[in-house]
């Protein structure tokens, strides 16, 4: 396979080591292709989402994983953050953001609203079919709740000029290809309130021209692990 990946800034520590293989590594290529209907069925079998403890200072936030079908293949919408953002510059992310109590009745509403603001996705076109496990960002600033939203047709998207520099989609089958996923083991930063010497898995998806990592890759890995377990 030709060199893949993008120019994302990845603060890889010198102590980083290899992690586990992809959970779907033994799955034959033909079983790694999914239609939207198959994604829907898999979502109905998801266990109840886990909500771990988070620091009191962490703010609630939500992201949306929009999925549509084109040419019989389920595809996931992703965005790229501008280099001008105060944090996570140039990273690949799902549309989403902070829960705003004066605007949102729920975290689901926050995910839909942020997707509309960031990429012009009509909230009425989004059918939320699953809530995934909540996670706390590494810096413990946000408690992040992901939602899976199905779209009946390929969307016409308009990225917000100051919040998104690129909006694109990738087939689930491509994310599951050999050589795209990689896990590394990193030492936990000493400023975090965890057991000293502990390591954590860091996930990567190296696309043709971008690298997905961080919280977005963690969400993708958990979702694709469940998806492929149905095969």
CATH class type of the domain at 34-172 and 211-229: Alpha Beta
Name given to the CATH homologous superfamily of the domain at 34-172 and 211-229: Nucleoside Triphosphate Pyrophosphohydrolase
Oligomer: single chain
Strand content: 25-35%
Task: Provide keyphrases for this structure.
8-stranded mixed beta sheet; 4-stranded antiparallel beta sheet; 30% strand; 231 residues; Nucleoside Triphosphate Pyrophosphohydrolase; globular; alpha+beta; 4 helices
Write the layout of secondary structure elements.
Layout (H helix, E strand, L loop, with lengths): L16 E2 L17 H9 L14 E12 L2 E8 L11 E2 L2 E3 L8 H13 L6 E6 L3 E2 L5 E10 L14 E6 H4 L5 E7 L11 E8 L4 E3 H16 L2
General description of the model:
By secondary structure, this protein is α+β, with helices and mostly antiparallel strands. The chain has a domain at 34-172 and 211-229: Nucleoside Triphosphate Pyrophosphohydrolase (Alpha-Beta Complex). The protein is built from four helices and twelve strands, in the order E-H-E-E-E-E-H-E-E-E-E-H-E-E-E-H. It has helices at 36-44, 107-119, 172-175, 214-229, and strands at residues 17-18, 59-70, 73-80, 92-93, 96-98, 126-131, 135-136, 142-151, 166-171, 181-187, 199-206, 211-213. A hairpin with a 2-residue loop joins strand 2 (59-70) and strand 3 (73-80). The protein is globular, with a radius of gyration of 17 Å.
In short:
The protein is an alpha+beta fold and 231 residues long.
